[in-house]
Every structure is written in structure tokens, then in C-alpha cells.
Amino acid sequence: MAGGSAAASALSNPWRTLLQRALDANAHLKHSTFFQLATVGGGSRPANRTVVFRGFQEHCDKIQINTDARSNKISEIKEWPLGEICWYFTDSWEQFRISGIIDVIDGSNSDPTKLQQREKAWFASSVKSRSQYLGPCPGVPVANDDHIKDVHLDPSAGPVDAYCLLTLDPEKVDYVNLKSNQRLMFTRRQEGEESSDWMAEKVSP
Amino acid sequence: MAGGSAAASALSNPWRTLLQRALDANAHLKHSTFFQLATVGGGSRPANRTVVFRGFQEHCDKIQINTDARSNKISEIKEWPLGEICWYFTDSWEQFRISGIIDVIDGSNSDPTKLQQREKAWFASSVKSRSQYLGPCPGVPVANDDHIKDVHLDPSAGPVDAYCLLTLDPEKVDYVNLKSNQRLMFTRRQEGEESSDWMAEKVSP
Question: Which of chain B's residues have a Cβ under 8 Å away from the Cβ of A148?
């Protein structure tokens, strides 16, 4: 999922080099691509859930996450688009805390480029993963087990309404390695679509 | 860490029965007691970090976490004491999202009972874990590697100033099992120090 373009961009970005190394070192673990995304919901309540890393958007550092447009977090993120990812690698004992602004790209988005990105991310998922979006609305009470229905999805069909792509644009990355007891703080100095300038500072763990 | 009292109380609390089962099923993994704690910091920014489960407080459902009183999160939590734990069990594919109010118990606390709890939690940690609080202030820039100094801690000495106990008092627990594709939402109905009444509802994942 963190494919060729990710590796290429990582060269110009110090924390992505570390992240790519962590992904490689933990690749034998299915959960190595899982992280926790914290956002702020109604009444300024913190919300936190496990999501799956779907790679970086091409030519930039934006982190892609697939989600259900019907889940609570979508309206919450539209209201307050800040997020912090906490990504702990259980084998190499490394933690990346990545904070930034989240963009919600659902089917109603007016930007054709973003709709293309959504379509691309949709087809990059497995058919099994895609068919989840045909299930019942998440978080709604279920009477019995009658919600477990067979769903059929045409593998060539484009994104369904319930499919939503989130992208988190990193502004700060707090990296700690618990084996070497080293901590690095990366701060983005310059904003830009194609490239960013990152400042690194060594801090106490 | 989730000892006898935890198991005993779990009988009267449906989500603690599930949590105890998950802890047992994943006990062979060191990281099974690690979870991510989300809080809200200055400027309503979400913050998220990995912390270690230090068991339940006796006779109640409060979740104990050790932390450094000098870290940013302490002033942030004092300002806004809401938290959400996201606890993902990598072997059994279960997630617990536990939200509630956090109590900060540092050495300046005026409640003698809470100071006793802090002392008890201090001695329940390993000497190695305790000696971390003698290190430099977390997050402060370091010039070279001169911060790696040998620290000596008297194993019989009580909690140092930098040691802080956090307790999170759960109000809502969102449980999902990704193997059975079942999700349960637990909501606390009644507040009380010693016992709580929990309502459970089956919702779609």
C-alpha cells in the first residue's frame, strides 16, 4: 500500500524515510498498517478509532484513509478538520504521532481532481473491502442477526455513495524509537502541494 | 496488571468481561496492554499517544495510566479532562473505544486518598519504569547524547515529583469484534463510586 511513489517521495522527506523503514521492518504483521486517528467531535469530545493506512496520495505527503460516509466522524471532521494519527509499530517499538488537516472527499465533492482520487482509492481496495460499504449504516441498532445479508458488488463498478476518502495532510510529526530511546520532532516549514520543507529537532523522549 | 480485583468486578460489568477475555487471549503479546489515549489540547487540537494500561483502580472501573507530570498532556487534561481510549487487540481483532473523564493525580493533589492511590500505583511499577521519571523533561530539545545519564533510584523511595497517575472513568464503551463482525455499545446509566449500571445495545459494525 505504501508503494513506489511513497518510497520515492520519502527521499526528500526525513520522517517519511523513517516511516518507510518502520513499514518495511513490520511488514510481516497484518496490523502494521493500522493506526489510531483522533479527532474532536461534538461538545469538544475527543474521538479515537483504528483505521487502515491506504498509502500516500501521489506526489505529496497526504495520508489516505477509507471510511464510511455514514459514520459519525464524517460530520464531525467536516465541522472540525484537525486530526492526530498515533501509529505504533509493535515489532520495532516506534511511534509516529502525525497531526494535520483532514480533507473529506465523498461523492458530493465539487472538485473533479478529488473525485478522481476517490475513484482511484476505491479501485485500489479489495472487492471484499469495497463491499462493506453496501452494508447497513454503521452504529445503528440491530434487532437480530438479520443484518448479515449477502451483498454482491460488481468489481468494475465505481465508488458507491457510502464510500468516503479521507486525506490527512501532515503538519507535525513526533517520532519516538523506544529501543534506541530517541525522539525527533518534525515541523513543516513551508506549505505546498508538491513539496514541503521539514525542520527536524532532537528532543528528550 | 489486570489482577484479581479486575476479574472480580468484571462479573457485574458486561464490557469488563469482554475486556478481561481480550486481555487473556492476547496476553502473549507485550503490546496487548498498550492503547492510544486521545485528548483535546490547546486550540481544540486533538492529541493522541500510546500509553500503558496499569490496571483498574480497586472497587471501580477507573483505568489507571502512569505519566510524566512534566509532559504537555498534563496541563491540557487539567484544562479539558475528557479522553477516549482506543484499544485494539491485534491477535483477537477486537477494539474497545472507552470514553470518560480523566483525573490527574500528581504530588500536589489535596486528596489524601488519591495521594495513596498514586503511591500504590508507583510501587506497582517496576523500578526501571519508575526511574524514567528521573530523566530530563520530555519534549525538551537535546544538544547531543549527553542526556543519557545513569540514574539511580532507591527502590523503597516513594513517588518522585515528576510521577503522575491518570485515571479515566469510563462513561461509554464501543466494542467491536472484527472476526465475528459484532459491535456492542455500552452506556453508563448510573454514576457511583462503587458500582455502575450499564446499558448494552447491539449496533451495526
Answer: 181
CB contact under 8 A, A86 and B201: no
Cβ pair A84:B46 closer than 8 A: yes
The CA-atom distances, in angstroms, between A151 and each of A119, A144, A155, A198 are: 20, 18, 12, 46
Chain B positions touching A29 (Cβ under 8 A) are 90
Sorted by where each starts, the structural domains of chain A and their CATH numbers stand as 4-106+163-203 (2.30.110.10)
Give, for all 205 residues of chain A, the pLDDT tens digit. Answer: 344 444 444 456 899 999 999 999 999 999 999 999 999 999 999 999 999 999 999 999 999 999 999 999 999 999 999 999 999 999 999 999 999 999 999 999 999 999 999 999 999 999 999 999 999 999 999 876 555 567 789 999 999 999 999 999 999 999 999 999 999 999 998 765 555 789 999 999 9
In this structure, what DSSP letter does residue B198 have? E
Contact residues of A toward B, CB < 8 A: 29-31, 34, 36-40, 44-50, 80, 82-86, 88, 90, 95, 97, 99, 135-142, 147-148, 181, 183, 185, 201-205
As a whole number of angstroms, the distance between CA B60 and CA B8 comes to 11
Cβ within 8 Å, pair A45-B84:
yes
A167 within 8 A of A63, measured Cβ to Cβ? yes
Q: Which three cell numbers stand for residue B164?
A: 503522575
